[in-house]
Amino acid sequence: MVTTFGKGLAFFLLGILTAAQGFSPEFSEAGQAAEISVPEILSKMENTYRTLSAYTADFTQWTTSVASSGATTKAHGVFYYQKPYRMRWEYEAPDRQIFVAFKDTAWLYIPEDRQISLLEMKELLQSPVMRTFFEGVVQLKENFQATLDAASASEETAVLRLTPKQEDPNVRDLRVWVDTTAYTITEIEAHDALGNINRIQFHNQKYVPNLPKELFAFNPDETVVVLDPSGRKLHPEEIGAIKRRLGD
After folding, report:
1. Which residues neighbour 212 within 8 Å (Cβ) at sequence distance 6 or greater?
2. Would you put residue 70 in left (φ > 0), alpha (ψ -120 to 50) or beta?
3. Residue-wise pLDDT tens digits, 202-245
4. Which residues contact 225 (CB under 8 A, 6 or more apart)?
5. CA nearest 89: which of 104, 72, 107, 74?
6. CA distances from 193 to 27, 148, 165, 197 (A)
7. For residues 212 and 245, what is the distance between their CA atoms, to the nearest angstrom?
8. Interstrand relation of 144-148 and 115-119 (parallel, antiparallel or unpaired)
9. Rounded CA separation 177/182 (Å)
10. Dihedral sign (CA 135, 138, 143, 147)
11. What is the pLDDT of residues 84-133, one digit of tens each?
């Protein structure tokens, strides 16, 4: 699961960036996308997400692994994002797992095992994709080369192909589907250097002023085992210190 997040994860948070500079205007040959350039799409997305403070979405994820002879697994759940620096992926099936990133700390909770694994946030943020999306207001122009995938566009959807400017072993390139009415992201597909594919579709996106703080709280009870990134079991005092540090 951690691998899933490390590779495809990034997905999420949208926000988009300043657009104009660095992108070459390109035009598709089909549908509404034919009338919209890449800088215009990014600018409109930026305007959309800049005004949002929090949102939720149901998601469906497909992961195709080269190591599994190209087998594809499917999962679904709910995604939560709150500015600044809070996100939660709550997987409901096939296994219930919860990934939370809050400020400088990230953890994966597996309810069935009553176990939390702390993750190295610095390592996660070394990925330009992860960093871009977690920061909420995405500086795509600085991190990616963007072009329009005209062949995949439709009247309602523009498709951007994003290539990291900085080498990222987890992401060779991304394709991002953008609703050209609301200028929100509806789907993301990531390809890594090994040929693995991670695709996520978002449904029922809802924008709200704020989400409950409890969604991003680090508050394990005494029955939950907490492991640091090296796999060492933390003492109650150490767990308490993390709670205090992350507490509002």
Report:
1. none
2. left
3. 999 999 999 999 999 999 999 999 999 999 999 999 999 999 99
4. 113, 114, 115, 116, 233
5. 107
6. 28, 21, 14, 10
7. 18
8. unpaired
9. 12
10. positive
11. 889 999 999 999 999 999 988 999 999 999 999 999 887 777 666 666 66
Token pair for residue 203?
């449904």
Tokens of 172: 């060779």
d(CA 174, CA 200): 11
| CA distance linking residue 98 with residue 79, whole number of Å | 10
What is the 3 state secondary structure string of the chain?
A: CHHHHHHHHCCCCCCCCCCCCCCCCCCCCCCHHHHCCHHHHHHHHHHHHHCCCEEEEEEEEEEEEHHHCCEEEEEEEEEEEECCCEEEEEEEECCCEEEEEECCEEEEEEHHHCEEEEECHHHHHCCHHHHHHHCCCCCHHHHEEEEECHHHCCCCEEEEEEEECCCCCCCCEEEEEEECCCCEEEEEEEECCCCCEEEEEEEEEEEECCCCHHHHCCCCCCCCEEECCCCCECCHHHHHHHHHHHCC
The encoded tokens of residue 237 equal 């005092």
